[in-house]
Design a protein that fits this description.
Rossmann fold; 265 residues; 41% helix
C-alpha cells in the first residue's frame, strides 16, 4: 500500500526540497516506486530531479488544481502531469508544479472542499507508487494544508534558527485544527529534524539546541542531517549522495528513511 509523506515548514531555506529529494533517492535505491509532488511554485524539486527550468509537460499541477475546482465533466488525467526524474534518481518520477500555483489561494478562498484537493489529485496515482513525497511551499497556504490532509505522516525540517523552530509550532497547531475539523484524522508526526546541522560553532549550536529543547520538547529527532558542500554540489549537478553509501550525509538520510518508514507503517 502506498504511503504519503509531506515535508513542511512555513519558513523558507530550511532544506525541505533537499530532504524530499534525498528521501526519494534513498527510497529508489530501496527498490521503491517513488513520486515526488512539487507543490512549490518555485519548482526547485522539479528543477533538481529533472534538470529543466521549464516543464515540458502539457499538463502541470496547476492545471489539475483548476480542474478540481471546475464544474467541467471532462477530466484531465493526473498521469499527464508526471515526468520521469533524470537517470541518477532510479525509480523516481515527478508530478510537475509550475509558477501558476502561487495564485491558488485566491481561487480556493471560498471553496469548502479545498483541503481535499491534493488527496483527490493523487487518488488515481496511488496504485502506481510505493511512496509519494510532497514537497510543500514555505507558507501555510492552501497547497500546504491540502498536502497535510493528503499524507500519512509529515516531517518538519528545521535549521539552527528560532524562526525555523517556530515554524514547526505553527504547522503543529494547524494540524491540530485540521484534525478537529475531521480533515486529517490519521496523520502521524514523523518528527522535526535538523536538516542543515552545524557543529563547528559549538556555542551557537548549544544555544540553538537548548532553545529547541525549550520550545519543542521531545519533538526534535536525535538524528541530524549535516550541512554539506558536497550535497550542494550534487544538487547543482541534478544528483544526490545516496549512491555513496558510506558518505556521512548518505548514512544520515538512510537512517532518516528507515525512521520515517517505521513511523508510517
Amino acid at each position: 500500500m502506498v504511503k504519503i509523506i509531506a515535508v513542511a515548514n512555513n519558513k523558507g531555506g530550511v532544506g525541505k526540497t533537499t530532504l524530499s529529494i534525498s528521501l526519494a533517492a534513498e527510497a529508489g535505491i530501496q527498490k521503491k516506486r517513488v513520486l515526488v509532488v512539487d507543490t512549490d511554485p518555485q519548482q526547485n524539486a522539479y528543477m533538481v530531479l529533472v534538470g529543466d527550468t521549464k516543464p515540458k509537460n502539457s499538463v502541470t499541477l496547476s492545471d489539475l488544481v483548476l480542474q478540481f475546482f471546475s464544474k467541467e465533466k471532462q477530466k484531465i488525467s493526473s498521469k499527464l502531469a508526471i515526468t520521469p526524474a533524470n537517470p541518477s534518481f532510479v525509480g523516481v518520477e515527478v508530478l510537475v508544479g509550475d509558477p501558476n500555483l502561487q495564485g491558488i489561494d485566491l481561487i480556493a478562498a471560498h471553496k469548502i472542499n479545498k483541503f481535499s484537493l491534493i488527496k483527490e489529485i493523487l487518488k488515481p496515482l496511488r496504485d502506481s507508487y510505493d511512496l509519494i513525497i510532497i514537497d510543500t511551499p514555505p507558507a501555510t497556504d492552501t497547497l500546504t494544508l491540502a498536502s497535510l490532509c493528503a499524507c500519512d505522516g509529515y516531517i518538519v525540517p528545521i535549521d539552527m534558527s528560532e524562526m525555523a523552530q517556530s515554524g514547526y509550532l505553527e504547522i503543529d497547531s494547524i494540524v491540530d485544527q485540521l484534525k478537529e475539523g475531521g480533515n486529517c484524522k490519521n496523520i502521524k508526526f514523523i518528527g522535526c529534524v535538523y536538516s542543515m546541522f552545524e557543529n563547528r560553532k559549538a556555542h551557537a549550536t548549544k544555544l540553538s539546541m537548548d532553545l529547541a529543547k525549550k520550545n519543542l520538547f521531545d519533538r526534535v529527532m536525535d538524528l541530524k542531517i549535516s550541512r554539506s558542500t558536497h550535497m550542494n554540489e550534487a544538487l547543482i549537478c541534478h544528483s544526490h549522495l545516496q549512491d555513496e553509501r558510506n558518505h556521512k550525509i548518505s548514512i544520515e538520510y538512510q537512517k532518516l528513511y528507515k525512521h520515517t518508514m517505521g513511523v508510517i507503517v
